[in-house]
What we know:
Layout lengths: L4 E4 L14 H12 L3 E5 L4 H10 L7 E3 L4 E3 L5 E4 L4 H14 L2 E6 L2 E4 L9 H5 L10 H8 L3 E4 L3 H8 L3 E7 L5 H11 L3 E5 L5 E6 L4 H11 L7 E5 L5 H6 L2 E4 L5 H6 L2 E2 L7 H10 L2
Parallel strand pairs: 1-2, 1-12, 2-3, 7-8, 12-13, 13-14
Antiparallel strand pairs: 3-4, 4-5, 6-7, 6-9, 9-11, 10-11
Amino acid sequence: xxxxxxxxxxxxxxxxxxxxxxxxxxxxxxxxxxxxxxxxxxxxxxxxxxxxxxxxxxxxxxxxxxxxxxxxxxxxxxxxxxxxxxxxxxxxxxxxxxxxxxxxxxxxxxxxxxxxxxxxxxxxxxxxxxxxxxxxxxxxxxxxxxxxxxxxxxxxxxxxxxxxxxxxxxxxxxxxxxxxxxxxxxxxxxxxxxxxxxxxxxxxxxxxxxxxxxxxxxxxxxxxxxxxxxxxxxxxxxxxxxxxxxxxxxxxxxxxxxxxxxxxxxxxxxxxxxxxxxxxxxxxxxx
Length: 287
């Protein structure tokens, strides 16, 4: 096969709008694997979330890239690499958020650290570990995975960072207004050690440690498994996928991706509600 590995995003890509995975996608993935291809989840989701989804669709035993590249899991689901924020950068970032009265939450392993209860965190465990009922998720395993997630209220982040020196691998910033585009520019000027990406129309910001991205971790994975990056295909739908799409031998944008993302890809497939991943596998990878 021309492409020996497929790196796939989850939300807006493999997952449809109901947070399920169409049977056509699963069938195409398994057919590709039966022919010798490897499929790696490459997502902004947490390690537990990505493992839950991988296990449910038969990808147990494949490596995983989680938290937009900050955490890499080996074939046994064990962390093989982890990038964390420097504590002085976290303190500077939190001071800036406080000064701008912006909401941010922090990912410490599979625990979500939040400053207060808000609509952005109230259903986090259920959203982090979706039921996947139509996909084939088993209720017993679902509860087991959800039981390992935690939302932790932190009254004073500045004190928490200084006292606990947590290993934070990802930050998300949300706002009900339209301040995030400007805030991302200010953040880039005033705080070091951050890699900033946004979702469509700056609905939120996803922040990784400097130098960390899906692309950088995919390159590490290609080196570890001796698969040239030119023989890797990647598929995604959002701005945090663009570097990965450009780095891969074949970058595939979803039909529901913004035009700016499509422009960074080599080809465009169907939408996530049209089993676009399956369409791409059958058209470009099973040739």
